[in-house]
Structures are given as C-alpha cells and as structure tokens.
TrEMBL record:
Belongs to the pirin family. This is Pirin family protein. It holds the Pfam family Pirin_C. Residues 36-139 form the Pirin N-terminal domain. InterPro entries: Pirin, Pirin_C_dom, Pirin_N_dom, RmlC-like_jellyroll, RmlC_Cupin_sf. Residues 194-292 form the Pirin C-terminal domain.
C-alpha cells in the first residue's frame, strides 16, 4: 500500500488514487475553550452536497473545573447537526429548548429565518472533568426553506439504525438512507451521513447513492483503494466512485457525508448561511440590535464580529 502524508493544516493534498479528488486537512479553531479542526468550508471546496461546514471536535480532556462554554450566538439558513463519540454538551436555544446530547445521539437545530443557541458543559461534568469528542456539521437549507420557521429535534442513540454489514464492519445511519436503513433525523437537502467502524483488517465498499460524497477520517489509518490516509483528513470522493475503505493494522472510524448538490451558491459569514447576501446583512443588523429572541437560562451572548 502507498501512503498519503499529512499536508499542512488548511491545505489540500492529492487524493492518491482515482476515487479521491482531494484530501483536505483541518484548520485549528478555538470554540469556547475547545480546539477544533475545521474541514469545511475550504477555498477549493465550499460544500459537499448540502454540507457546508464540518468541525472535528476533540478528542480533548477537560480538567475538573474547566469545560466547554459557547455563549448564545445566532444562525440563519442552516441546520446544525451535533454528533458525539464521547462526553456531553448541554444545548439551549431561543425556542426554549434545553437538551443534553450524549454519544450516539443527534441534536438537529434548524435555523430558518433566525435562531440563537448556546453550548456548554453541565455543572456536574465540569466539576469532575470530561473527555469530549465529536463533530458539528452545518447543512444549508434549501432556498425554499431558508427563511422558514426555526426548529429543534433530538434523536436518541437507540433511535438511529445500527447495522452489522459483515464481520468487523458496523455502521450507524446518522442521516439519510443507506444499506436499506433510514435515519429518523430530518436533515435537509437529501443529506447522507454514516458513522462507519471497521475492525483491523476489515473493509467496506462505499456506496454511490448520492452524487457528492466525502470521507472524514475520525480515528485510525484508513486505506482508500489501497492508499493509506491518516486520521484528521477529509477525502472528497469523485462522482460515481465506489472505493474500498479498509482498516489496516488497527480499528478505523470514518464518517461518510454527502448528498445532491446545493440548489445554488451560498454566502457564508460568521454563523450565517444564505442564498442572498442581503439576508446576511439583515441578520447582522438584527443580532447587533438585539432583535433575536433570548436563549433560556442565559444572560450573556457573543458580540457581532467586525466586518
């Protein structure tokens, strides 16, 4: 097997095989005291299907007395999908929702014309310390829905289909439909999201059910059609390719994301996504003027960035 060595953070590297268009390395960002690797958007790849944002959170170990603190901030035109491998996050929003997400569950918040939320560590977890590990994803809403009413749904881990494809090959259908199973998560834009786990030496052929796809290497070294990719990269797949993904010497976890192409270009600024930049300017004004509804049990909020 050949091997793809990691490029510098924020850069892309060649795919190394016919099935992979490019591999994007994450750029470091600090989110409320948590270092994340941002894989999307990227200058040469703004979206994969409806997925316009992909943050790899952790794994990070918080000492007792410390924790995640993201004060209230606004969104428009997107759905945030939070999925954890370890730890817990308390979500509060301007709809009155207070929900703790734990590993294997999904929080899906639909922003529409505007919603605000916070993400923090629960007091008991802060007191004892905790390892936090997961992903947060943004999906652009369709042009017909981006100014609709905001909403929130929580889906417990037991509600998501969990499949054993073969010996040593398991997956959970986080969003969309694959291998005859459908997730109850109402993700927009025909989104497909799979959490795939491979034991050492085991492999799975990636389906081409949707036109645009990418593989996020969560942990372990994954061989894609014989080319080994280290953890932390996002391998953007070519249309129609059905690569074989294999765990080499240790277990591997990858996430497949994808879907149909967006129904037009999107502008992104801070936490706002819109088909019309004027909607972003309006959201800026509303947040600066305090026109978004308040978040339950919160007294602070993030200021509007300059620009």
């Amino acid at each position: 097997m050949s091997r793809i060595d990691g490029a510098r953070a924020g850069e892309a590297e060649p795919g190394g095989c016919a099935a992979v268009e490019m591999v994007i390395r994450g750029r470091a960002r600090d989110i409320g005291g948590l270092n994340v690797a941002r894989l999307l958007p990227y200058a040469k790849r703004r979206a994969v299907g409806p997925f316009v944002f992909f943050d790899r959170m952790g794994p990070v170990s918080f000492d007792p007395g410390t924790g995640l603190d993201v004060p209230p901030h606004p969104h428009i035109g997107l759905a945030t999908l939070t999925y954890l491998f370890a730890g817990a996050i308390v979500h509060r929003d301007s709809l009155g929702t207070v929900m703790t997400i734990r590993p294997g569950a999904v929080n899906l918040m639909t922003a529409g014309h505007g919603v605000a939320h916070s993400e923090r560590m629960a007091p008991e977890d802060r007191a004892s310390g905790m390892v936090l590990d997961g992903v947060q994803i943004w999906l652009a809403q369709s042009q017909g829905d981006e100014q609709g009413a905001p909403g929130f749904s929580h889906h417990a881990a037991d509600d998501l289909p969990e499949l054993r494809i073969a010996a040593g090959v398991g997956l959970r259908v986080v969003a969309g439909e694959a291998f005859g199973a459908r997730s109850p998560v109402p993700a927009p834009g025909g989104a497909l999201c799979l959490d795939i786990m491979l034991d050492a030496g085991c492999a799975i052929e990636i389906p081409d059910d949707v036109p645009e796809r990418a593989l996020a290497i969560i942990s372990g070294d994954a061989a894609i059609d014989g080319v080994v990719h280290e953890a932390g990269g996002l391998a953007v797949l070519r249309a129609g390719a059905r690569p074989l993904v294999q765990a080499t010497e240790a277990p591997v976890r990858v996430m497949l994301i994808g879907g149909p192409p967006l129904d037009g270009p999107r502008a992104m600024w801070w936490n706002f996504v819109a088909s019309d930049p004027a909607l972003i300017e309006d959201a800026k004004r509303r947040w600066a003027d305090g026109d978004f509804p308040p978040v339950a049990e919160e007294t602070s909020r993030l200021p509007l960035p300059p620009g």
